[in-house]
Every structure is written in structure tokens, then in C-alpha cells.
Amino acid sequence: NSRGAASLLKDSISFTDVSAAGLFEGHDLLRRGFTSVKNELLPSHPLELTEKNFQLNQDKTNFSTLRNIQGIHAPLKLQMEFRAVKQVQRLPFLHSSNMAMDILRGNDECIGFEDILNDPSQSEVMGEPHMMMEHKLGLL
């Protein structure tokens, strides 16, 4: 009976579960791009993630404290000012001190590691201005 065999086959195999490559499907380079070992590595120390997200965590804490003290308008206004300051940029080959961002965060009166050891005049990497601008505009 051909009708019985077709119904058994239809009930036993789900066509949505089977992909084109089957169970041994590899990495699809066209859809997902190149794999990067750096993205798959776990942090080498438990504090590495905390240090990497320090500024974000500090901003969240400051916003929640500001909201509890002054209300919802204060952190919203500060976030709007952060976005406005981030949109203003210099040309890619010119160093920016981000003074406006430091003032908003309250770091303008603090001397930190980056203030002493992040001097752009001592940088070993200086690109050609025309090439850097073309790269930023997507012409290269």
C-alpha cells in the first residue's frame, strides 16, 4: 500500500530538522563571515571583564544614583549630553583629548594613567592624513 508507506515516512522524518549539510554542518563562511579565535577566548582572569567594562558600570551606577536623588530627568539629560559630545569629532589623524567628555564625567580634575603615558606626540603610529580620511569616509 503506497498510501501507508508515505504516511509512515512523513511521520518519522521531520524535514524542518534536517539542514542541507546534515548533522555535520560546518561554519558557513558566506553567512557568518570569518571566525576569530580572539572572540571565542575566555577571559584569563576573573577581573578582566570587570576592568574592561569599568566605565560602563560606573556610568550605570552614577545614573541610578542621580535618578534616585533628582528624578528621571537628570540621567536622561546627562545621557543626551554624552551623545552630543560623542558626535563631535576631530579629523581621524588629529588627536582629541575628549575634554568635554572628561568634564561631563567629572574626570577633568583627576590625573590618571592615560594622562601621563598616553601622549600623542610620543606615539609611534602616525598615519597619512589623506589615507585616514578616505578610510573613514569609506572611499578605500
UniProtKB/TrEMBL annotation:
GO biological process: proteasome assembly
Domain of life: Eukaryota
Keywords: Chaperone
A Pfam short name: UMP1
InterPro entries linked to this entry: Ump1
Cellular component terms per the entry's GO annotation: cytoplasm; nucleus
Family: Belongs to the POMP/UMP1 family.
Protein's name according to its UniProt entry: POMP protein
Organism: Agelaius phoeniceus (Red-winged blackbird)
Gene this chain is encoded by: Pomp
